[in-house]
Amino acid sequence: MRLAQASGGRVALVIGNATYPDDNQPLPQPLKDARAVAEELRRAGFDVTTGEDLTKQRLRSVIDTFKAKIKPGSAALLFFSGYGIQTGKQSYIVPVDAQIWTEGEVRRDGISIESVLAAMNSAGASVKIVIVDAARRNPFERRFRGFSAGLAALNAPAGTLAMYSAAADKVANESEGENSLFVGELLKEMRSPGLSAEQIFNNTRMGVSRASKNEQVPWVSSSLIEDFSFSRGGGTVPSVTPPPPPPPPPVEPKVSVVTPPPPPPPEPKVVAPPPPPEPPVTVVTPPPPPPPPEPKVTTVTPPPPPVTGPRRDQVIRDLDAQIDKNPRDGEAYYKRGQAWAERREYAMAAEDFGQAIRINPSDAEAFNNRCFTRAVMNELDAALSDCDEALRLKPQYPDALDSRGLVHLRLGRLDKAIADYDQALRMNPRMASALFGRGKAKVRKGETSAGNADIRSAKAIDPTIDQEFESYGVR
After folding, report:
1. Pick from 204, 222, 240: which residue ends a domain?
2. Taking a C-beta distance cutoff of 8 angstroms, is the pair 319, 336 a contact?
3. What is the span of the domain harbouring residue 409?
4. Which end of the chain is more exposed for a tag (fewer CB within 10 A), N or C?
5. Neighbouring C-alpha atoms within 13 Å toward the C-beta of 455
6. How confident is the model over 382-401, as pLDDT tens digits?
7. Which Pfam family, just one, is annotated for this protein (predicted)?
């Protein structure tokens, strides 16, 4: 491959989104990661446009600014760290003001990575580079699917080099340190002289894989048709003057060998005559006693153990293996709890959410999910305690308000149920479960007209919501 000269220059867009109102606290590393990557790219000669904690409007604005800088033949690079979601086999960057409650709202509020890549390509960039650190468990997906599905593989045009922080459809656990594990390895490789961009990405993948013991394996894809280097040196290998040949070995002095005289002949050996042979002795060995008969062994095959407990399908077995490999993987316990809840194995789900809480006592989502499963199992006091803790950790958490509303409804505390549902609906007016629960509470209070209106609205959003509540014990 020939070396890409990037005749149209080098431009980059570097974004770090950390402060999402729907999350209980800012992400610790995206801003630091984005700043470190931007500085490294400036040293490599890139014209860098940066953005931090971008809303949807500001995100579109900086993308337009970035696109305007791309000239035919240039190298263009996108770096994003924050939350990302895949839907419809495309991955989306999530702005900090996104209001995502359904899968369709991902496309409305998110920015498709492929659309940014297409803009880079249409502007004439000959080299297109995409680096995305967004394969995180996020607060949005739990509203419309079982668990985070990571990012989708990128459908990239020719001349593209792309890397995600984790394999397609996988989620990476958060790491400690100034930078994320992924960005830390990337920066280290970018500072190594004489490497092409493709070598840097492959070395980063191997470094992250080794450091995480293969728990996190970045995804790399290349359709480059020319070699490219972040260094202005272009990955060339400096010439080295070969060392002079070693001097010839010294000539060893000739040694004269003197042959010693032959030894004198040996004296003749005198051999004494042999003694007369002794008379033969016959030894009679008595026959061995016959072996005792072997006892007859009767083999009894025990009956197979009875099949008990919930059925462990492939999803559950995969999570079992992940937990066996790392018993401190709170994310795996959380995912298995969600999988059990989807199969209506609520006791198993509550146990796994409890394990996730023991590993991370600040996991508001795990407290909320255990609240819900305990509410369905009629463990209402314990459920209420879990929901209260979820809301202490994350006060503006509509899912936990919805769960606590269900607990109050089942306890007969109708005013408290309505208050929780009201607050959840102020944050998400289309939350079908909150509408239906509030409708049921109003009907039980005698506010039949208003209650039935809420129930009709809930069924318009989710026609099966009444069956769902029946499974929770609410009729």
Report:
1. 222
2. yes
3. 314-471
4. C
5. 17
6. 999 999 999 999 988 888 99
7. TPR_16
